[in-house]
Amino acid sequence: MESETGGEHPPRLVVIDDEPQIRRLLQLALEGHGYPVVEAVNGRDGVLAVAQNRPDAVVLDLLLPDMSGVEVIRRIREWSEVPILVLSALGQEKEKVSALDAGADDYLTKPFGIEELLARIRVMLRRALRPAESPLFRSGALEVDLSARRLWIKGEELHLTGTEYALLRLFVRHAGKVLTHRQILQEVWGPKSVEQTHYLRVYIGRLRDKIEVEPARPLLLLTEPGVGYRLALLD
């Protein structure tokens, strides 16, 4: 079967989950859409499966019998930048944020829909295929030239303050990925400001006023409640 990405060699995924029902659901859904799946039932086997198979993406449950999902992410990130989607249960906000801070790219909260799962995986794969050094970025009505420090909405050039631009540049470099409050504050304001979330709310509002067609109904700069923000990859 041809993969949804249209390539001759469909992206291979590693699924790390100790629940047989979830693994079966994920296998049927992913392989039914052209993604070959390698399964692992615990963290140790999962890290080994990633090392041996060099997958295009990983789906990882945060609750594993032998180690935490966060530890699995840390071990994988010692040598690989493979996109990682974490699965969390309701009420696991702290674990979810810890996973993203450790290097996960996205998350889904159980129960989740198959279409949403597939959409998140497509975005992760698109991010991984983007030219790493390209200074040009486009998403929906937004165009950014990082080399020239210029941006446009619907062809009209906009001007940002230094902090607003630093914030947007961070989102562009990680477009499609969830960035936690801590990650953003540390990158833009420094490690001493990681608890100053009010800074972030103010500047996110200012940035939305400039880059969103309807700031009250953002399509580009999306809030991930209790976690952080992401810059959407739109056609």
From TrEMBL:
Stored CDD domains: REC_OmpR_KdpE-like, trans_reg_C
GO biological-process terms attached to the record: positive regulation of DNA-templated transcription
DNA-binding residue intervals: 134-233
Ranges of residues in domain OmpR/PhoB-type: 134-233
Localization, UniProt: Cytoplasm
Keyword Cytoplasm among record annotations: yes
GO molecular function: cis-regulatory region sequence-specific DNA binding; identical protein binding; phosphorelay response regulator activity
GO CC terms of this entry: cytosol; protein-DNA complex
Keywords recorded for this protein, A-Z: Cytoplasm, DNA-binding, Phosphoprotein, Transcription, Transcription regulation, Two-component regulatory system
InterPro entries per UniProt: CheY-like_superfamily, OmpR/PhoB-type_DNA-bd, Sig_transdc_resp-reg_receiver, WalR-like, WH-like_DNA-bd_sf
PANTHER family given in the database record: KDP OPERON TRANSCRIPTIONAL REGULATORY PROTEIN KDPE, REGULATOR OF RPOS
Protein name as it appears in the record: KDP operon transcriptional regulatory protein KdpE
Native species: Methylacidimicrobium tartarophylax
